[in-house]
Amino acid sequence: MINFEILMNNCAKQWYEYTNHEFVEKLKLGTLPIKNFQHYLCQDYLFLMEYSKAWEYAVHNAKNISEREFAYKNLRDLLDGEIELHISYCADWNISKEQVFATKQHTNNKAYTDYVIDFGKNGSYIDMITALAPCAIGYAEIGKRIITDKNTNKENNPYKSWIDVYCSNEFIQKGEEFKSFMSKVYDGISQDEIEKQKHIFKKATELEIGFWDMGMEK
Length: 218
Hints:
The protein is mainly alpha-helical. The chain has a single domain (4-215), classed as Heme oxygenase-like (Heme Oxygenase, Chain A), CATH 1.20.910. It has 11 helices and no strands. Helix 4 (34-61) packs antiparallel against helix 5 (65-92), helix 4 (34-61) runs antiparallel to helix 8 (125-148) and helix 8 (125-148) packs antiparallel against helix 10. The mean pLDDT is 94.
Protein backbone atom coordinates (compact mmCIF):
# COMPACT_ATOMS: atom_id res chain seq x y z
CA MET A 1 0.00 0.00 0.00
CA ILE A 2 1.19 3.51 -0.79
CA ASN A 3 -0.25 7.01 -0.51
CA PHE A 4 0.87 10.62 -0.20
CA GLU A 5 1.78 10.33 3.49
CA ILE A 6 4.08 7.39 2.83
CA LEU A 7 5.82 9.24 0.00
CA MET A 8 6.17 12.37 2.11
CA ASN A 9 7.52 10.49 5.14
CA ASN A 10 10.03 8.74 2.90
CA CYS A 11 11.66 12.14 2.26
CA ALA A 12 10.60 13.97 5.42
CA LYS A 13 13.77 16.07 5.56
CA GLN A 14 13.40 17.28 1.97
CA TRP A 15 9.67 17.87 2.40
CA TYR A 16 10.31 20.04 5.46
CA GLU A 17 13.01 22.02 3.61
CA TYR A 18 10.59 22.58 0.73
CA THR A 19 7.53 23.63 2.74
CA ASN A 20 9.52 25.66 5.28
CA HIS A 21 12.02 27.20 2.87
CA GLU A 22 13.54 30.62 3.56
CA PHE A 23 11.63 32.01 0.56
CA VAL A 24 8.31 30.85 2.04
CA GLU A 25 9.21 32.16 5.50
CA LYS A 26 10.07 35.59 4.14
CA LEU A 27 6.80 35.66 2.18
CA LYS A 28 4.94 34.75 5.35
CA LEU A 29 6.58 37.59 7.26
CA GLY A 30 6.42 40.06 4.37
CA THR A 31 10.21 40.55 4.44
CA LEU A 32 11.09 39.06 1.05
CA PRO A 33 12.78 41.71 -1.14
CA ILE A 34 10.47 42.79 -3.96
CA LYS A 35 13.08 42.02 -6.63
CA ASN A 36 13.17 38.40 -5.45
CA PHE A 37 9.40 38.13 -5.68
CA GLN A 38 9.35 39.66 -9.16
CA HIS A 39 12.06 37.21 -10.23
CA TYR A 40 9.98 34.34 -8.82
CA LEU A 41 6.83 35.53 -10.61
CA CYS A 42 8.51 35.58 -14.02
CA GLN A 43 10.02 32.14 -13.52
CA ASP A 44 6.77 30.78 -12.15
CA TYR A 45 4.97 31.83 -15.33
CA LEU A 46 7.47 29.82 -17.37
CA PHE A 47 7.00 26.93 -14.96
CA LEU A 48 3.21 27.05 -15.33
CA MET A 49 3.51 26.93 -19.12
CA GLU A 50 5.61 23.77 -18.88
CA TYR A 51 3.38 22.43 -16.11
CA SER A 52 0.42 22.66 -18.49
CA LYS A 53 2.36 20.62 -21.05
CA ALA A 54 2.91 17.96 -18.39
CA TRP A 55 -0.84 17.74 -17.81
CA GLU A 56 -1.34 17.41 -21.57
CA TYR A 57 0.89 14.34 -21.47
CA ALA A 58 -1.09 13.03 -18.51
CA VAL A 59 -4.33 13.35 -20.51
CA HIS A 60 -2.72 11.42 -23.36
CA ASN A 61 -1.23 8.74 -21.09
CA ALA A 62 -4.37 8.09 -19.06
CA LYS A 63 -5.52 4.46 -19.03
CA ASN A 64 -9.19 5.10 -18.28
CA ILE A 65 -11.86 7.80 -18.17
CA SER A 66 -11.30 8.62 -14.50
CA GLU A 67 -7.61 9.25 -15.05
CA ARG A 68 -8.25 11.31 -18.15
CA GLU A 69 -10.92 13.40 -16.46
CA PHE A 70 -8.62 14.19 -13.54
CA ALA A 71 -5.77 15.24 -15.83
CA TYR A 72 -8.06 17.23 -18.10
CA LYS A 73 -9.60 19.10 -15.17
CA ASN A 74 -6.17 20.13 -13.92
CA LEU A 75 -5.16 21.20 -17.42
CA ARG A 76 -8.32 23.27 -17.86
CA ASP A 77 -7.82 24.93 -14.47
CA LEU A 78 -4.42 26.09 -15.67
CA LEU A 79 -5.47 27.22 -19.13
CA ASP A 80 -8.78 28.79 -18.12
CA GLY A 81 -7.62 30.62 -15.05
CA GLU A 82 -4.29 30.21 -13.34
CA ILE A 83 -1.96 31.16 -16.20
CA GLU A 84 -3.91 34.25 -17.23
CA LEU A 85 -4.36 35.22 -13.59
CA HIS A 86 -0.60 34.96 -13.20
CA ILE A 87 -0.06 37.45 -16.03
CA SER A 88 -2.43 39.96 -14.43
CA TYR A 89 -0.73 39.39 -11.08
CA CYS A 90 2.63 40.16 -12.68
CA ALA A 91 1.17 43.43 -13.92
CA ASP A 92 0.23 44.30 -10.33
CA TRP A 93 3.93 44.01 -9.54
CA ASN A 94 4.99 46.23 -12.45
CA ILE A 95 6.04 43.37 -14.67
CA SER A 96 4.76 43.73 -18.24
CA LYS A 97 3.73 40.85 -20.48
CA GLU A 98 6.73 41.65 -22.64
CA GLN A 99 9.07 41.26 -19.67
CA VAL A 100 7.48 37.97 -18.67
CA PHE A 101 7.62 36.56 -22.21
CA ALA A 102 11.25 37.66 -22.61
CA THR A 103 12.36 35.93 -19.41
CA LYS A 104 14.86 33.13 -19.88
CA GLN A 105 14.09 29.98 -17.97
CA HIS A 106 16.46 29.55 -15.04
CA THR A 107 18.48 26.33 -14.91
CA ASN A 108 16.76 25.24 -11.66
CA ASN A 109 13.39 25.85 -13.26
CA LYS A 110 14.31 23.96 -16.42
CA ALA A 111 15.74 21.04 -14.47
CA TYR A 112 12.41 20.66 -12.69
CA THR A 113 10.14 20.97 -15.72
CA ASP A 114 12.38 18.71 -17.83
CA TYR A 115 12.25 16.08 -15.09
CA VAL A 116 8.44 16.09 -14.98
CA ILE A 117 7.87 16.24 -18.73
CA ASP A 118 10.27 13.37 -19.33
CA PHE A 119 7.80 11.11 -17.52
CA GLY A 120 5.14 12.28 -19.94
CA LYS A 121 7.32 11.30 -22.88
CA ASN A 122 8.87 8.13 -21.52
CA GLY A 123 7.06 7.17 -18.32
CA SER A 124 3.63 6.09 -17.18
CA TYR A 125 0.56 7.98 -16.01
CA ILE A 126 1.38 7.00 -12.42
CA ASP A 127 4.90 8.40 -12.82
CA MET A 128 3.41 11.69 -13.99
CA ILE A 129 1.02 11.98 -11.06
CA THR A 130 3.84 11.32 -8.60
CA ALA A 131 6.15 13.85 -10.26
CA LEU A 132 3.39 16.49 -10.26
CA ALA A 133 2.33 15.86 -6.67
CA PRO A 134 4.94 17.93 -4.77
CA CYS A 135 3.82 21.06 -6.60
CA ALA A 136 0.09 20.33 -6.55
CA ILE A 137 0.01 19.31 -2.89
CA GLY A 138 3.00 21.20 -1.52
CA TYR A 139 1.62 24.68 -2.14
CA ALA A 140 -1.62 23.67 -0.42
CA GLU A 141 0.35 22.34 2.55
CA ILE A 142 2.33 25.59 2.66
CA GLY A 143 -0.94 27.50 2.57
CA LYS A 144 -2.37 25.52 5.50
CA ARG A 145 0.75 26.12 7.56
CA ILE A 146 0.90 29.85 6.83
CA ILE A 147 -2.75 30.47 7.68
CA THR A 148 -2.44 28.74 11.06
CA ASP A 149 0.97 30.17 12.00
CA LYS A 150 0.64 32.88 14.64
CA ASN A 151 3.79 34.52 13.28
CA THR A 152 2.30 35.14 9.83
CA ASN A 153 2.07 38.81 9.00
CA LYS A 154 -1.57 39.08 7.93
CA GLU A 155 -2.06 42.82 8.30
CA ASN A 156 0.50 44.78 6.29
CA ASN A 157 2.10 42.01 4.28
CA PRO A 158 2.84 43.09 0.68
CA TYR A 159 2.40 39.46 -0.37
CA LYS A 160 -1.03 39.09 1.19
CA SER A 161 -2.74 38.50 -2.16
CA TRP A 162 -0.34 35.60 -2.93
CA ILE A 163 -0.91 34.17 0.53
CA ASP A 164 -4.68 34.50 0.15
CA VAL A 165 -4.64 32.35 -3.00
CA TYR A 166 -2.70 29.46 -1.50
CA CYS A 167 -4.44 29.69 1.87
CA SER A 168 -7.89 29.64 0.30
CA ASN A 169 -10.26 26.78 1.11
CA GLU A 170 -10.59 26.09 -2.61
CA PHE A 171 -6.86 25.64 -3.14
CA ILE A 172 -6.38 23.56 0.00
CA GLN A 173 -9.30 21.35 -1.02
CA LYS A 174 -7.67 20.75 -4.41
CA GLY A 175 -4.61 19.50 -2.57
CA GLU A 176 -6.73 17.06 -0.59
CA GLU A 177 -8.42 15.84 -3.77
CA PHE A 178 -5.00 15.24 -5.32
CA LYS A 179 -3.98 13.12 -2.32
CA SER A 180 -7.16 11.06 -2.62
CA PHE A 181 -6.63 10.53 -6.34
CA MET A 182 -3.05 9.40 -5.76
CA SER A 183 -4.29 6.63 -3.47
CA LYS A 184 -6.63 5.43 -6.21
CA VAL A 185 -4.02 5.26 -8.97
CA TYR A 186 -1.54 3.53 -6.66
CA ASP A 187 -4.01 0.79 -5.75
CA GLY A 188 -2.53 -2.63 -6.50
CA ILE A 189 0.89 -1.53 -7.78
CA SER A 190 3.89 -3.80 -7.11
CA GLN A 191 6.57 -3.26 -4.48
CA ASP A 192 9.07 -2.42 -7.21
CA GLU A 193 6.67 0.21 -8.51
CA ILE A 194 6.21 1.58 -4.99
CA GLU A 195 9.97 2.03 -4.63
CA LYS A 196 10.07 3.76 -8.00
CA GLN A 197 7.35 6.23 -6.95
CA LYS A 198 9.22 6.98 -3.72
CA HIS A 199 12.28 7.90 -5.76
CA ILE A 200 10.28 10.08 -8.18
CA PHE A 201 8.51 11.95 -5.37
CA LYS A 202 11.74 12.57 -3.47
CA LYS A 203 13.52 13.88 -6.57
CA ALA A 204 10.62 16.17 -7.48
CA THR A 205 10.60 17.51 -3.92
CA GLU A 206 14.32 18.25 -4.15
CA LEU A 207 13.65 20.12 -7.40
CA GLU A 208 10.98 22.18 -5.62
CA ILE A 209 13.63 23.17 -3.08
CA GLY A 210 15.81 24.21 -6.00
CA PHE A 211 12.97 26.35 -7.32
CA TRP A 212 12.75 28.26 -4.03
CA ASP A 213 16.57 28.55 -3.99
CA MET A 214 16.29 30.19 -7.39
CA GLY A 215 13.85 32.72 -5.95
CA MET A 216 16.40 33.78 -3.35
CA GLU A 217 19.13 34.53 -5.90
CA LYS A 218 18.24 38.06 -6.98
